[in-house]
Amino acid sequence: MGTILLIGGGVASSDPDKKRLFEYMHQALGGGKPKLAILSSSRKDAQTVYDHFYKADSELGSFEINYRALGFEPVFIPLAVDNADLVKNNPVWEKVLLECDGAYLQGGSQFNHIKSLLNRDGSPSLLLEALRAILNRGGMVAGTSAGMAAMGDVAFGEGTSIGAQKANGMEWRSVPELFDDETFLTNFPD
User: Fold this and answer.
1) Which one, of 3, 25, 7, 5, lies nearest residue 183 by Cα?
2) Contact 53, 40 (CB under 8 A)
3) pLDDT over 90 for what percent of the chain?
4) What does the pLDDT read at residue 7?
5) Structural domain contains residue 171
6) Is the full-model pTM beyond 0.85?
7) Which of 14, 71, 100, 176 is the least buried, fewest Cβ under 10 Å from its Cβ?
8) Residue 40 included in any domain
9) Would 127 be classed as within a structural domain?
């Protein structure tokens, strides 16, 4: 079993105060220039996922630039809610993900991660199985905020966290019996 890294939230790849965290991730992946898949599957649309990865914001940079500066070879995975049915079971993207040393699930919406990574019937998609394969071969899967929370037994659905419920029984059980309430009172709708 590899490394599951649960990061509470408020972690930006552009934040110099978080350098030790990213150094730990780098070390957990064996050093060198590890390939790290960046999954922003917590986003509703593929254009936002693309923009966050490739387009440098004057304040935050881009995931591509920031993760390169941190010593990783960042890998773009174009998964979002609006294109999930085209991407999550596509063998091309499964292969791209399987070639990575680790994966990092960005913050955003827990429910969107779940919708993006599970099939409509609740079964795991090829990309979710690829994440599990990365762990099983000794790699790392990390998540911050919603990316962390989506790895537990319970993920909040749409709406405010206080009124949230599991939607349609969809859940990703990466870490059995883990319940994280870090975003319970702070995860408000977009």
Assistant:
1) 7
2) yes
3) 37
4) 76
5) no
6) no
7) 176
8) yes
9) yes
Q: Which is it for the CA torsion 59, 65, 71, 72, positive or negative?
A: positive
Number of domains in the chain: 1
Cα 23 from Cα 6, distance rounded (Å): 15
CA distances to 10, 15, 31, 59, 173 from 40, rounded to whole Å, are 15, 18, 24, 19, 19
pLDDT in tens, 119-174: 988 889 999 999 999 999 999 888 877 666 677 666 555 554 434 444 444 444 44
| pLDDT tens string 5-45 | 777 766 666 676 677 888 888 888 999 999 999 998 888 89
- Number of helices (H) and strands (E) in the chain: give both, helices first: 8, 5
Burial class of residue 113 in the structure, from the number of CB atoms within 10 Å of its CB (0-12 exposed, 13-18 middle, 19+ buried): buried
Cβ atoms of 5 and 179 closer than 8 Å? no
Flag whether 180 is in a domain: no
**R_g (Cα) of the chain, nearest Å:** 15
